[in-house]
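Renewal narrative, Specific Aim 1. Our central claim is that a sequence can be written position by position from structural information alone. The example that follows is taken directly from our test logs and has not been curated for this report. It begins with the structure tokens describing the chain, in the order in which they were read.
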């Protein structure tokens, strides 16, 4: 018996037509006037608000800078900013809101890994590229997430710090104090391991809860351990308290050094003479920029000062750099005539190579920056002087000021 094939009915034909039309639309380039939406999530309130707002200003400046040049490949850019209130669960909700309601082409921002982590998971789940402004925890890039990128990494802090301690300070006994956050704990452990390879002993290693108001007991232990150098893995507010208490009780140290929170003009202004001789680390600061980017850096400082009435700092520049990365990737995709899908933008990010004031920005196979490297600075006469590495130094270490 001959088999009779039934023809699809009107409803089935309509479904097939709609699917075909949808696929065709998905591959069409954007119209010239169509805006590109970027989603930003930062702690704009809560205990991390100071640095969250600094990152926000850097991102906002980068977006407005792009729009002043005519947008991205001729498309205006709209920034949708959200406050995670310094809370991981709020960060998750804000990421979902930006992805589903905001329909953003990519995510940017983030301060501390307890907030960046939940956002990165949402980005991976929904295939949206995310360029984190301030993230260090190695686990985030240990397992390949093709939608996650960041502009900073621990190696770019730990390596120059330990080289400085070994080659310049020539210290042999170190005390380590760090905040009990994932990134700060990992920083402390990596420093301890690196110093051990250099035959430098960690004679004291303790952690504290962020916001801890009194370090006097820990400081009593430092001379008892015969530490020569004190390294703080605390943040801005923690180091304000620590430095003031350190000045009240000299410990006979060669040096005090903190990679976070010291290399800021606001810190220098607040602690006054108590800050003289302290060491910090930074990736960028006004007057401290990647060789070859001096003019761009000066123009950025002038424009930022005009808009916000103050100078940008190293945290601001992390926000600016992350936004520049996402904008550049979007421009690459759009100039190729493609639609800015999460996959397309992520592929463009993976191939990125930009020379920016903070760093030459190119990502490795895991989304970490290949060239991120901080410099060591010392506060001398109320200004930051680069003292390491030698090829970028703007002055020499003042050992008489460094002694605590």
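The sequence written for that structure reads:
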């Amino acid at each position: 018996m001959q088999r009779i094939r039934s023809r699809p009915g009107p409803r089935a034909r309509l479904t097939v037509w709609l699917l075909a039309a949808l696929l065709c639309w998905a591959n069409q380039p954007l119209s010239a006037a169509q805006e590109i939406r970027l989603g930003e999530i930062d702690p704009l309130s809560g205990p991390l608000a100071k640095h969250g707002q600094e990152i926000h200003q850097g991102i906002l400046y980068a977006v407005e800078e792009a729009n002043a040049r005519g947008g991205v490949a001729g498309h205006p850019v709209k920034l949708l900013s959200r406050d995670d209130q310094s809370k991981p669960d709020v960060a998750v909700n804000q990421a979902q809101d930006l992805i589903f309601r905001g329909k953003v082409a990519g995510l940017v921002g983030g301060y501390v890994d307890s907030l960046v982590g939940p956002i990165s998971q949402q980005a991976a789940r929904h295939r949206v590229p995310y360029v984190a402004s301030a993230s260090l925890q190695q686990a985030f890039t240990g397992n390949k997430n093709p939608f996650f990128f960041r502009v900073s990494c621990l190696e770019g802090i730990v390596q120059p710090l330990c080289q400085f301690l070994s080659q310049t300070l020539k210290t042999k006994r170190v005390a380590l104090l760090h905040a009990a956050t994932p990134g700060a704990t990992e920083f402390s452990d990596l420093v301890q391991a690196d110093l051990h390879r250099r035959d430098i002993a960690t004679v004291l290693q303790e952690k504290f809860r962020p916001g801890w108001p009194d370090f006097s007991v820990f400081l009593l232990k430092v001379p008892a351990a015969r530490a020569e150098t004190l390294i703080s893995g605390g943040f801005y507010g923690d180091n304000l308290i620590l430095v003031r208490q350190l000045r009240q009780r000299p410990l006979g140290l060669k040096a005090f050094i903190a990679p976070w929170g010291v290399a800021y003009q606001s810190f220098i202004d607040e602690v006054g003479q108590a800050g003289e001789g302290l060491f910090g680390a930074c990736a960028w600061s006004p007057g401290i920029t990647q060789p070859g980017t001096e003019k761009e850096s000066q123009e950025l400082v002038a424009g930022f000062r005009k808009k916000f009435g103050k100078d940008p700092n190293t945290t601001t520049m992390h926000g600016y750099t992350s936004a520049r990365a996402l904008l550049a990737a979007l421009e690459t995709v759009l100039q190729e005539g493609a639609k800015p899908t999460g996959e397309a933008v992520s592929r463009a990010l993976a191939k990125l190579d930009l020379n920016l004031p903070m760093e030459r920005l190119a990502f490795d196979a895991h989304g970490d920056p290949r060239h991120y490297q901080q410099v060591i600075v010392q506060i001398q006469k109320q200004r930051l002087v680069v003292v390491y590495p030698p090829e970028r130094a703007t002055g020499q270490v003042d050992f008489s000021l460094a002694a605590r």
